[in-house]
Amino acid sequence: MLLTMLQDSEELLNETVSEEKTLSIYKLIMDGGVGGQVIIAILIILLTVALYIYFERFFAIKSASKTDSNFMNQIRDHVSHGKLDAAKVLCAQANSPASHLIEKGISRIGKPLADINTAIENAGRLEIYKLEKNVSVLATIAGAAPMIGFLGTVIGMIVAIHEIANAGGQIDIKMLSDGLYTAMTTTVAGLIVGIISYIQYNHLVVRTNKVVYEMEAHSVEFLDLLNEPI
Question: Any stretches that span the bilayer, and where are they (predicted)?
């Protein structure tokens, strides 16, 4: 009899441990109530948007950063020999932000150097705008996601306090736990989305700055070429 009771207790303990181990993220979300589920859904949408923008911009910037190390030497050779059309074709084939600036400068050859410099600067601003397209959205998501998560925390705590206030001495642990689930899961989800978006934003900024520096270097080299004595 005692052996049977011990076996039953062991089975009950094993079932309890098993239930604890199988507590999934899905169950945490579903136990968080409607408020928590809405907040989590919003955060999932924000994470999807952030990932899409990151990978779209990452490949665009990666493509823009590919430049031929011999590009400026070829431009120098064409411009020195007066082959401006060949230089423009070379820029079109390179199809990079730096080559677009050089092409703009070549099209202004014959005008005052200040006008050429202004044209290159204006073209540079346009290229930078193209590179930074939608990147600011990542910064917005990085800041907004944790706040949305904290909003879920406040909602969850309100639900929990409301249940305690209306319990009349009989606290419903199930309803109380729903509020606490909402509070905890939304906070964690908001922080995760915010951290991921923040890292993605800073990575894109670093890569964009690298392309901008290359553009500036090529522009300065091109202007120096025009200043060289014939």
Answer: 34-55, 135-161, 181-201
